[in-house]
Amino acid sequence: MSEPIIIEDYSPAWSNTFEALKAIYQSHLHQLIVGVEHVGSTSVVGLAAKPVIDIDIIITNLENLNTIIKKLKPLGYTHRGNLGISDREAFKCDTAYTPIDGSEKIWPKHHLYVCPSDSVSLRNHLTLRNFLRNNPQKAKEYGELKKQLAQENPYSIDKYIEQKTPFIIDILKNGGFTETEILNITQENIQK
Prior knowledge:
Elements: H1 13-29, E1 35-39, E2 53-59, H2 65-72, E3 77-81, E4 89-93, E5 110-116, H3 120-134, H4 136-152, H5 157-173, H6 179-191
Parallel strand pairs: 2-5
Antiparallel strand pairs: 1-2, 3-4, 4-5
Helix pairs in contact: 4-5, 5-6
């Protein structure tokens, strides 16, 4: 049986964890990357979320991906491919000590992705994050929806993602995405 889906009230520790992780990535990848963004629900103050920090490392294009993979490996990250999401490369934490930075710190759970700066995946993450940051009432509604879905589907992350997708798509439709991009995002979210 898979782990239960847990939705927690917002914690300021999420932002602090992101900033500490960002500093490590910038230190090791500084000349290869454009930026590091905190995305996902933990990046929105006041939003209930699964306690998992989602991070997008932004690159100009995929030309330097192999170099980035090699630089992330000693930190304890294994490249997993795109996991069915176009223009987004996922990395798995090898241990609870990942990133291995010499501190022997056990890090909170986090998901690390590398995205080209012009990717739909990155635009999706940033558009949703920025909308929710600027619309606290919608963020509250989204948090309540996620809590409800986690109760209804406590052991099915696939159903949870599928059932929250219409809320996300409504936001993205007003965020400048084409119909084709919306269709692709919907299919990628539902295929999990």
